[in-house]
């Protein structure tokens, strides 16, 4: 009996030693540290240095919304109108990056034939013409960008109209005498100036008042 117990004990000790000999604990590695580099902060982009300028622009608008001011008559209807302009010009001083103020002028002319309701003739009964000059205080609010080639802006202009109108028959006699349209002139536009150089470029606008579309040349001094 004692021999059996001794034999079992010996076998257990041998098994334990064998198991311990087959176990290889892994090495405890020190934590890996990533090499840190100072973070590079991108410098904030600066707007180009501003210098006050005097701006001159000359353009052509379409359509001439003065055609809406042609008189209406109860016994005659208006045919298709023809228009010239308005030709536009603006002279302003840009005293800051965000704003300029100056004067804007326009010139345009619209004509339209009038036909008698009671006549089937293709010849108009008379022709109406409306010629307009306007002078307006012009204020432009610029939207600063980091692009030196494009300058978007809002234009607001208010001022007075000067009208010259005639409604003449085919003999040149006055067919009608009507009151002048409103003396109040205005224009509101959203546009952009495209700089071809520091002194010259062109502009495009959309808006309402004297015109819906307008484009032309612009100079800076």
Label this structure with key terms:
221 residues, Porin, elongated
Q: What would your notes on this structure say?
A:
This protein is mainly beta and about 220 residues long. It has one helix at about 1-20, and strands at about 55-60, 75-80, 80-95, 100-115, 125-140, 150-170, 185-195, 200-210, 215-220. The chain has one domain (about 55-220): Porin, CATH 2.40.160.20. It contains 1 helix and 9 strands. It has an 8-stranded antiparallel barrel with strand order 1-3-4-5-6-7-8-9. Strand 5 and strand 6 form a beta hairpin. The longest helix has 21 residues, at about 1-20. The chain is elongated. Mean pLDDT is about 85; it is low at about 15-25.
Summarize the structure.
With about 220 residues, the chain is mainly beta.
As a percent range, the share of strand residues is over 45%
- Mean pLDDT comes to 85
* Overall body shape: elongated
Task: Show unreliable segments.
Answer: 14-24
Helix coverage percent: under 10%
List the strand order in the largest sheet.
1-3-4-5-6-7-8-9
- What is the total domain count? 1
Radius of gyration using CA atoms only? 42 Å
Specify the CATH class: Mainly Beta
The total of helices stands at 1
For the secondary structure, the number of strands is: 9
Question: What is the CATH topology classification name?
Answer: Porin
The CA-CA distance between the termini, in Å, is 121 Å
User: Pairing-aware structural class of the strands and helices?
Assistant: mainly beta
Helix-strand topology string: HEEEEEEEEE
CATH architecture term: Beta Barrel
Tell me the major beta sheet: 8 strands, antiparallel, barrel
């Amino acid at each position: 009996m004692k021999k059996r117990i001794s034999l079992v004990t010996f076998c257990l000790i041998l098994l334990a030693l064998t198991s311990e000999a087959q176990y290889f604990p892994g090495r405890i590695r020190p934590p890996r540290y990533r090499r840190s580099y100072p973070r590079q902060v991108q410098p904030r982009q600066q707007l180009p240095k501003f210098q006050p300028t005097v701006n001159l622009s000359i353009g052509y608008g379409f359509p001439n919304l003065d055609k809406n001011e042609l008189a209406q008559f109860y016994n005659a209807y208006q045919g298709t109108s023809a228009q010239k302009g308005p030709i536009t010009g603006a002279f302003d001083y840009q005293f800051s990056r965000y704003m300029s103020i100056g004067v804007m002028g326009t010139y345009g002319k619209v004509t339209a034939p009038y036909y008698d309701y009671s006549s089937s003739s293709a010849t108009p009964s008379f022709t109406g013409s409306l010629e307009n000059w306007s002078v307006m205080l012009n204020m432009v609010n610029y939207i600063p960008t980091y692009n030196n080639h494009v300058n978007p802006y809002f234009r607001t202009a208010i001022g007075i109209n000067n009208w010259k109108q005639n409604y003449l028959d085919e003999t040149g006699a006055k067919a009608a005498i009507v009151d002048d349209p409103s003396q109040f002139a205005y224009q509101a536009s959203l546009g952009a100036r495209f700089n071809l150089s520091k002194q010259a470029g062109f502009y495009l606008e959309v808006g309402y008042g004297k015109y819906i579309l307008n484009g032309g040349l612009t100079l800076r001094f």
